[in-house]
Design brief:
- The structure is a single chain.
- This protein is mainly alpha-helical.
- The chain contains three helices and no strands.
- Helix 1 packs across helix 3.
- The longest helix is centred in the C-terminal third of the chain and has 31 residues.
């Protein structure tokens, strides 16, 4: 049976890692020429929309990397 505190700590830890990722890892920033090329390539209306999509993809990518690293460490350090 799982500890009731564990069911609360796991989502809190995941949320904390997400906040740390957003604060510590820099998101990509484009020059104005590259941003305009990307906007025309992907048919995006303004720069805010471009950066919203870029930040979403960036943090999704970083979250996936963190997940696999933590999963690897958990399996390595916590044998069943």
């Amino acid at each position: 049976m799982k500890n009731p505190l564990e069911t609360l700590l796991i989502p809190a830890g995941i949320l904390l890692l997400g906040f740390l990722s957003a604060l510590l890892l820099p998101a990509p920033a484009f020059g104005i020429d590259l941003a305009r090329k990307m906007m025309s390539l992907f048919h995006i209306m303004d720069l805010n929309q471009l950066y919203t999509i870029v930040f979403f993809l960036w943090f999704l990518f970083l979250g996936a990397i963190e997940y696999f690293i933590l999963r690897f460490l958990w399996r390595r350090l916590h044998p069943q």
